[in-house]
Every structure is written in structure tokens, then in C-alpha cells.
From TrEMBL:
The lineage of its organism: Eukaryota, Fungi, Dikarya, Ascomycota, Pezizomycotina. The keyword Hydrolase applies. Pfam families: Arginase. Its EC number is 3.5.3.1. Binds 2 manganese ions per subunit. It comes from the Eukaryota. Its cofactor is Mn(2+). One of its GO terms (biological process) is urea cycle. It comes from Massariosphaeria phaeospora. It catalyses: L-arginine + H2O = urea + L-ornithine. This is Arginase. InterPro entries: Arginase, Ureohydrolase, Ureohydrolase_dom_sf, Ureohydrolase_Mn_BS. Pathway: Nitrogen metabolism; urea cycle; L-ornithine and urea from L-arginine: step 1/1. PANTHER family: ARGINASE.
């Protein structure tokens, strides 16, 4: 039996209003299928459970956006980025969708899609919270990867490996149709960014993390201290009076629990550790937005059902379901 979470949200206008954005987008990386995740999550009952079990008033336009209407005719690689115009156009639209929910004081849940969509979600949250509360947001990025490559450091050219670089301003581009639409009010500070679960970081990314003193808890840190201590340290770094955007890449979980994802890396979080991270963030009452990304139901050798169920569980936990 479940009932509504007993958390008093600090930065939301109405405790039970949730905006949902479903982003069926795979253009930030080469594998098809990740665009089908929102539908798979919804069919697994996610939105229904949020309404019925967690008693949220869900604002959802009922659509999984495919963005085919903004697919550019011509989209050559530029500065080593693959499909730059398409990813830019989609993330700009996602940014506006997330912004409008967050601006009205709702908690925002975005179902991806590959992780490039975080350029949209986080920029939308950052702008809305600045305007509504005059505050900077913190970002907790739970992932096997740091996704902080600049176009120049990236070895793959896949933009899902670059969102944090654009969001922090470590990468930027003048061209309006290639992320030039990202303005200062969309951006976040490297001081308010915390990583959890890292274990596959590119050479150039390590250099960026080190040079900018970015707070990161790798799997090594989790092994050493345990997830409880790591969450205390991560939340301590952010402070108790800061709105939090949680961006959760399902590949942070070990492939044993979440095999259906484009870039699986062994040696990851257990299902319980993932849920625990989400629960600790729920407990703060500071959560203003959450992304769940990189579920790819078509990579289902071992059954996409497990990965979809893990995704549903992570979202429920982040929204306070398992707290007493
Ligand atoms: N969101 C993800 N799964 N990102 C994987 C990124 C992998 C690699 N670091 C790259 O830049 O291509
Ligand atoms: Mn990842
Ligand atoms: Mn990622």
C-alpha cells in the first residue's frame, strides 16, 4: 500500500503539481530505440502510478514528442558534433516546455530520450528558478559517464556526451541554430554540479573535472565510503537551501539491473543504491526537476522489462514514494 509522500517541498508553488514532458529523441547518439522509452515507461504505468499512488496532479500533454517536424533538411557535422542543428532545435524546444512548467511552480519530470536532452531540461529549469525565486539551481548528475566533453575533446562526436559542457559554458557556440540560443540565464555553475556513479570518463573529461574542481563521486568513492556517506557528502556540498535538478542516466545502474541502454558499463550501482540516491534527494524537499534518460527498450537481449521497471522505480523514489 502506498500513499502520498510526506515531504514539504521548499521550492514548489503547489506540493502536488507535476509537469511531465515526454521526449522521444535519439539524435544525440547513434543507436535507434531510446526514443521509444517514454512510451515504454508510460505503458508500464508510470504516470498512472504517480497520479493514483503518489497523488500528483499531473500536467501532461499526452504526447511523446518526436520532433520530426523540426528535423533539418541538411545537418552536417560541425566542430565534430553529429547532427548539431537537430539536437539544438530539439533541446531548445524541450527547454521551453520545461521552463513553462517550472515557471508556474510545478515539479518537472522529463522522460528521455538520450542524455543530450538535458541541455533542454536543465536550461529550462535554471531559467525558470532564476526568474521565479532569484536562485541558482544545483544539478545532481547520476551517470556512469560525465557527459562533459566539449566538441573538441569528444572522441565520438555524439552530443549526448557533451550536455554538461554546454550547460556550464565550458563549451559554447555563437551560431543560433547550434546551441547559440543558450544564454547566461540558462546556464549552471560548475560549483553547483555533483556527479554520482562515474566509472567511464574520457581523458579530456578527466582534465576538465580536475581543472574546474568539479565535485564527483565515482564508483570507487561509493565502494570506499558506502552510498549513505556519499549522499551525505554530495548533499552537504550543495547545501540544504538550494533547488535541485536531478539528471538520472539509467546507465549509472549496473547492466545487471539496467541492461537496455546504449552505453552500458559494468561495475555500476545496484538497483537499491540507485533508489537510495533518489530517496535521499526526495528527502531534502529541494527537488524541482528530474530527468530519466537513456532507457533503450529495443536493446532487449536480456529483457527491456527490467530496465523499464528500474526506471519507474527510480522516478517513484525521487518523488518520495518509499519514504515513510
Ligand atoms: N549519455 C551517455 N550515455 N553518454 C555516453 C558518453 C560516452 C562518451 N564519453 C562520449 O563522449 O561519447
Ligand atoms: Mn551514461
Ligand atoms: Mn549520460
Amino acid at each position: 500500500m502506498t500513499s502520498a509522500p510526506q515531504i514539504e517541498p521548499k521550492f514548489l508553488a503547489h506540493r502536488h503539481d507535476l509537469g511531465v514532458v515526454a521526449v522521444g529523441f535519439s539524435g544525440g547518439q547513434p543507436k535507434p530505440g531510446v526514443d521509444a522509452a517514454p512510451m515504454a515507461l508510460i505503458e508500464a504505468g508510470l504516470i498512472k502510478q504517480l497520479e493514483e499512488d503518489l497523488e500528483f496532479n499531473v500536467a501532461f500533454d499526452g504526447q511523446v514528442h518526436s520532433y520530426s517536424e523540426i528535423l533539418p533538411a541538411d545537418d552536417p557535422s560541425y566542430r565534430n558534433m553529429k547532427r548539431p542543428k537537430f539536437v539544438s532545435a530539439v533541446t531548445k524546444e524541450v527547454s521551453e516546455q520545461v521552463y513553462s512548467h517550472a515557471k508556474s511552480g510545478k515539479l518537472v519530470l522529463t522522460l528521455g530520450g538520450d542524455h543530450s536532452i538535458a541541455i533542454g531540461t536543465i536550461s529550462g529549469t535554471a531559467k525558470a528558478i532564476r526568474e521565479r525565486l532569484g536562485r541558482e539551481i544545483a544539478v545532481i548528475w547520476v551517470d556512469a559517464h560525465a557527459d562533459i566533453n566539449t566538441p573538441e575533446t569528444s572522441e565520438s562526436g555524439n552530443i549526448h556526451g557533451m550536455p554538461v559542457a554546454f550547460l556550464t559554458g565550458l563549451a559554447s557556440e555563437e551560431r543560433e541554430d547550434t546551441f547559440g540560443w543558450l544564454k547566461d540565464h540558462h546556464k549552471i555553475s560548475t560549483r553547483k554540479l555533483v556527479y554520482i556513479g562515474l566509472r567511464d570518463i574520457d581523458k579530456g573529461e578527466k582534465k576538465i573535472l580536475r581543472e574546474h574542481g568539479i565535485k564527483a563521486f565515482s564508483m570507487h568513492d561509493i565502494d570506499r565510503h558506502g552510498i549513505g556517506k556519499v549522499m551525505d557528502m554530495a548533499l552537504g556540498w550543495i547545501g540544504s537551501d538550494t533547488p535541485i535538478h536531478l539528471s538520472f542516466d539509467v546507465d549509472a545502474l549496473d547492466p545487471m539491473w539496467a541492461p537496455s541502454t546504449g552505453t552500458p558499463v559494468r561495475g555500476g550501482l545496484t538497483l537499491r543504491e540507485g533508489d537510495f540516491i533518489a530517496e535521499c534527494i526526495a528527502e531534502t524537499g529541494s527537488l524541482v526537476a528530474i530527468d530519466l534518460v537513456e532507457v533503450n527498450p529495443s536493446l532487449d537481449e536480456h529483457g527491456a522489462g527490467d530496465t523499464v521497471r528500474a526506471g519507474v522505480s527510480l522516478v517513484r523514489c525521487a518523488l518520495g514514494d518509499t519514504l515513510l
